[in-house]
Automatic annotation (TrEMBL), chain A:
Ranges of Acidic residues composition bias in the record: 215-230
Domain named Sodium channel modifier 1 zinc-finger: residues: 44-69
Name recorded for this polypeptide: Sodium channel modifier 1
GO BP term, example: monoatomic ion transmembrane transport
This protein's UniProt keywords: Ion channel, Ion transport, Metal-binding, mRNA processing, mRNA splicing, Nucleus, Spliceosome, Transport, Zinc, Zinc-finger
GO molecular function: enzyme binding; zinc ion binding
Annotated organism of origin: Oryctolagus cuniculus
Gene Ontology CC terms: nuclear speck; spliceosomal complex
UniProtKB/TrEMBL annotation, chain B:
Organism encoding this protein: Oryctolagus cuniculus
Gene Ontology CC, one term: U12-type spliceosomal complex
Domain RSE1/DDB1/CPSF1 first beta-propeller: from-to ranges: 14-365
Top-level lineage group: Eukaryota
Protein name from the UniProt record: Splicing factor 3B subunit 3
Amino acid sequence: MSFKREGDDWSQLNVLKKRRVGDLLASYIPEDEALMLRDGRFACAICPHRPVLDTLAMLTAHRAGKKHLSSLQLFYGKKQPGKDVEQNPRQQNESREETTVEAPLLTQTRLITQSALHRAPHYNSCCRRKYRPEVPGSSVSRSPLPSAAELELQSGKISREPESAADPQAKESATVSAPAPMSPSRRRALDHYLTLRSSGWIPDGRGRWVKDENVEFDSDEEEPPDLPLD
Amino acid sequence: MFLYNLTLQRATGISFAIHGNFSGTKQQEIVVSRGKILELLRPDPNTGKVHTLLTVEVFGVIRSLMAFRLTGGTKDYIVVGSDSGRIVILEYQPSKNMFEKIHQETFGKSGCRRIVPGQFLAVDPKGRAVMISAIEKQKLVYILNRDAAARLTISSPLEAHKANTLVYHVVGVDVGFENPMFACLEMDYEEADNDPTGEAAANTQQTLTFYELDLGLNHVVRKYSEPLEEHGNFLITVPGGSDGPSGVLICSENYITYKNFGDQPDIRCPIPRRRNDLDDPERGMIFVCSATHKTKSMFFFLAQTEQGDIFKITLETDEDMVTEIRLKYFDTVPVAAAMCVLKTGFLFVASEFGNHDLYHTVHLGDDDEEAESSSAMPLEEGDIADLANEDTPQLYVACGRGPRSSLRVLRHGLEVSEMAVSELPGNPNAVWTVRRHIEDEFDAYIIVSFVNATLVLSIGETVEEVTDSGFLGTTPTLSCSLLGDDALVQVYPDGIRHIRADKRVNEWKTPGKKTIVKCAVNQRQVVIALTGGELVYFEMDPSGQLNEYTERKEMSADVVCMSLANVPPGEQRSRFLAVGLVDNTVRIISLDPSDCLQPLSMQALPAQPESLCIVEMGGTEKQDELGERGSIGFLYLNIGLQNGVLLRTVLDPVTGDLSDTRTRYLGSRPVKLFRVRMQGQEAVLAMSSRSWLSYSYQSRFHLTPLSYETLEFASGFASEQCPEGIVAISTNTLRILALEKLGAVFNQVAFPLQYTPRKFVIHPESNNLIIIETDHNAYTEATKAQRKQQMAEEMVEAAGEDERELAAEMAAAFLNENLPESIFGAPKAGNGQWASVIRVMNPIQGNTLDLVQLEQNEAAFSVAVCRFSNTGEDWYVLVGVAKDLILNPRSVAGGFVYTYKLVNNGEKLEFLHKTPVEEVPAAIAPFQGRVLIGVGKLLRVYDLGKKKLLRKCENKHIANYISGIQTIGHRVIVSDVQESFIWVRYKRNENQLIIFADDTYPRWVTTASLLDYDTVAGADKFGNICVVRLPPNTNDEVDEDPTGNKALWDRGLLNGASQKAEVIMNYHVGETVLSLQKTTLIPGGSESLVYTTLSGGIGILVPFTSHEDHDFFQHVEMHLRSEHPPLCGRDHLSFRSYYFPVKNVIDGDLCEQFNSMEPNKQKNVSEELDRTPPEVSKKLEDIRTRYAF
């Protein structure tokens, strides 16, 4: 939405122009480096303290900051330890464009216009892995039970809970590098993990499960149920 | 998405009823309003049945209705006060069977507003003026008169406004021929408003104010105002002038008061109360409705209390001064919204809830019920499913209120009442009925044909076999009929037998070895087909002789069926013969002397014809009481095919051309057709694997299946007991059937319930229903028994020593007394008193399998049947119960969720545990092996525990009160009581419920139904239906703030979600919709959205499949809006956009009014659409039959 401007204060106009350009350029923030929150604001997915920023402009400003840049290094260093060539996704993007498209400038302009014409920011708070770029933006499960792939996605997602230490298998699933068909036992283990989580057990980070204090349990329920054998 | 709205069953609740001579004859009729529908009913004094003559949807809210008659006139007009800001005067035109708008005067804004008149109407009893009043301030008086041509005229309005005045009721006072006077119950709140201490508010009294219309000065004066002791709720006019003492009766709490001008002192009489009533004795009693009966010599009033007791009120007068009011108990009937006493001794009671009754008064103080017109109002909950394993789904609806409530099973079909069933010796092939004389009203003989014999039964007091009828009994019969005035004809394979009135018999024998294979007969003509396809034509000459036509006609193929139309009145013969041949054609053959037996036209058919029937249908009533002839209907040729299809074709009465064919599949067997009479018109009974009746009713064609077993042959039947019946054959029985509820789409089976049903669910394995019934202001059975016992003890204690024995006897009688609550009403326990039961019911037999009574003041509000993932295959029933709920000011002591295990194959409830919760659990839904429960505004996931349900997850961000929960995949769609829908995503991984989208409109959602993964249809309490959809780029993977430090400002704009749903469609139905379901109604049909309304209506919204159709109907709607504006003056578009602008819905109810428009207007509209009127009505019929009935 824009209001009709009154007056001729050029400096203000320039500020607005700059902001607009900033907005347009913001589309160059890769999708997995920011999260969109349910209230329409953004969280930086790079910085470990997850700063929440009100607008794209503020996110852009934050991304230019020292703190962010240092955590960027940390982030990519941690994220793809196995990859031999550490690449910023932006560079990756660009290099891909260079190799595949003949007129990079045209493509770039087209991308920018496209994102400028978007009615809503197309950020997705779901962090997804690099090796599955084909997952559409609004991937939703159409069956009442989540599919295995989705389970995997969810459990592999970066979340504030320090879950990974508790369940080595789940962690494994997060870092597994190919969507290979899961073995039944793995799937059962995953399922069990989700069942425990959804019935209010929280992994405490030391390989044990503790009760969520906001959740009710049966009075004789002291330990989480074991993984069902077969 | 574009939708088309169709009403399947109109609202059945009555809001107003008035009676008068609306068609201008001696017969009294009743006009009722059903919210947005105006209906004219005619009670038949002979049969005691009520016939509906006309139903019109007015597309506005009818707020008041009055009948009035000009001085010296014989015809009553209808004055309608509505939300249109206009006063409308209607006249019923019996010749056209329609209401005609005589006057429409605009006075204010549209809508139901406080100060725009329309809420109250009062007419001068002498028919000189009408007052229309608002709830506050404004009153207008119109003077009515007639002009030189005796037409009704209406003056410009005269104002009688008074600011700061609330109006409770207005009536016209009968002052004879003095200046017209109106009495109003008013309250002036000006002082109370200006006094901040509140003292004035406490002292403000209601007043009775008289307004006089000065006809000489042409203005209205506030003549006289008098404060009242008690707060009145309504007024009754007392006849005046030469008929009575004039004045008014004021009905108020516990008292009824007579008031008049002059020296008349006020006469007061308390309202009698029931002795030993379980009701709170402190509670006041009021009259809720009244009816006046006036003849030349006497008058009386009937007034009904809120318990349903009717009292007859008479006034004792001494020289025009009223000395006494007498109240005498008359009867108890269910509480009524309106009553009408008719001159024929009938009392029409339009019930507030439930079925309406017509009572016949035997003598004052004694009456018996004659007819009942069923009403599903209020209809709380509906579900469509094929639980009975029939091929078409049934509608299961919970309706009614309190002790009169019921669960009804609605099936598409006409209700058939079986008058008689008798066994026959062997399996008959065919049956006919004949009259003895053309003037006779009733049939004389039933002729039953067997393989080698014919049986003749005479109809009298009993039906018995006769042998002297003249019919040949030793041969099968092909057809028989009355011929001429008083002769009979029997066609049998070897000849024709003509039986004269004096029992002389003429026989015509077939030539050679030929036999008669088919024949067609009417009153004057006989056509037979001989083997080989030869047609022989006979016609009756003026001397009564049956003569063969000189030529015979050889057909190109074998004849399989034939039909002759009835001879039109005043003519010699029917001009057309329809012949169906084995080569899949139907030919029309002329019987006119100029070109006799010449073929006129031919129609090729997709399959071999089985049966033909030419009928005249679709005309409005042929002759009204004044002897005025109405238009005559069209000739239709009905063709039943061997593949079970019925074709209906228009037969041109001049050229014999066939045009405008409509097709309908009836069933798997070949279709046989029979002509019968229904409500004075011809109709066709079509028999395939199911029997159908094709008839014209209120200028619309209906083709409705009979809810009855398969029949083989039928014929019309008229006798004294059953003037319009059907005699039919089914295997070896002869049945006499009557079809009474013409026009109804559904036939109902009702099973009584104890309290108002609130919700029900279907157990998917046993198909049993689990119903929760809850009543406010009611006692449970246990409390009732306890109170009775207590009262009996008090009775004994209160008695003196010597009366002890008598008192004990009385107490015992009181304890044993058991009045049926469905008539006498349940005792009213007071505010905040609740009673509930949970019932398991078999919906097919209607028997209760299990009944759980909840404690006093526990009110069940939600129910769900579900399985838990941690308990395997067991089914559980969860019931959400509120404890000590007080509605206003709202308070609640808490709630419970009762958990029952369904055992014994879904027939018994086994109590498991109850889980206390903080608020009312108003919604429960199964979700991923657990349950979602809306506890007040909290959305929670519960799992089944050993001692109670275990709360596993919670979301506190729903705005007000969760009224419904729908789930699909990980998505949960929560309907809030006033904030529309909220989309919530459950994250198993984090055990969180996160709101990710919501709606932009504040809808007060009553019910919702998921259409697909992104789309939900909902209805609100103001009578709107909407469909909202999440836009395709919606992302439901949003996170809660990952920093975890949720601050006050960390919410979306105005607490809303960041993503918003889009509105796909909006539509105002006009009645509160209480259930929505996406389903198919006919086997093989497409899906539609079915809704049921509080007032008992059932409708569907169907999607358009092609853009062309949508375009066409949009134009039909547009033209009808301008050419056929609604009757009460409300603009159609603004009515459908009452709360939200109508979007993407075309109103089929308006489009179907095309059929009731005048022919020239029909022509105009269809010309604009580049079509002919039959084409337009065919399209209208097509879209209806594609989805429903």
